Task: inverse folding
């Protein structure tokens, strides 16, 4: 029987008590794994480098668009004669 059907069958039964809930929670926590300190440090460094890279990239793109739009505004003003 699939897990989804088993879950539905369990939901249709009586509600479990607090003790059963705590026991099930502890069983699930024993199945989990947590990253090592080195893994956390490495991924943190990667995230910081990416944030800095994209901040600089977006800063440069923003300033390029401002430069282009100022140039277009100047050109249109020259054509119109303002």
Result:
């Amino acid at each position: 029987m699939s897990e989804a059907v088993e879950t539905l069958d369990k939901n249709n039964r009586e509600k479990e008590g607090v003790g059963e809930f705590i026991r099930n929670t502890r069983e699930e926590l024993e199945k989990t794994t947590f990253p090592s300190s080195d893994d956390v440090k490495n991924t943190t460094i990667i995230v910081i480098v990416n944030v800095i890279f994209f901040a600089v990239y977006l800063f440069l793109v923003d300033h390029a668009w401002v430069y282009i739009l100022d140039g277009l505004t100047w050109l249109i003003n020259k054509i119109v004669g303002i």
User: Anything to note?
Assistant: The CA atoms of residues 53 and 59 lie 10 Å apart. The longest helix spans residues 37-80.
